[in-house]
TrEMBL record:
This is RNA-binding protein. The keyword Lyase does not apply. It comes from the Bacteria. One of its GO terms (molecular function) is RNA binding. It comes from Candidatus Zambryskibacteria bacterium RIFCSPLOWO2_01_FULL_35_19. Signal peptide: none annotated. InterPro entries: Nucleotide-bd_a/b_plait_sf, RBD_domain_sf, RRM2_NsCP33-like, RRM_dom, SLIRP/GR-RBP-like.
Amino acid sequence: MKKLFVGNLPYKTNDAELKEMFSQNGEVTEAVVIMDRERGVSKGFGFVTMTNDAEALAAIEAWNGKDIDGRALTVNEARPQEDRPRRDDFRR
């Protein structure tokens, strides 16, 4: 399994559309567009999990820099989330 970061998504893109896009390059086990919890709208990025490295590499090559609705996608291997303070920690 290989997890990919997909940035600069059009804000109207949903999970199903993201999965459909990347399914052109191989089997997608999960596709998630990250949503703003407070406003319920897309944050413009998401993650796609593909079944193997070769398909993930093909997807990166196919989609990185590709123009979708006037936005050039950024697609690369997802890195582990860095530890960072939660936003509400700053409000104290």
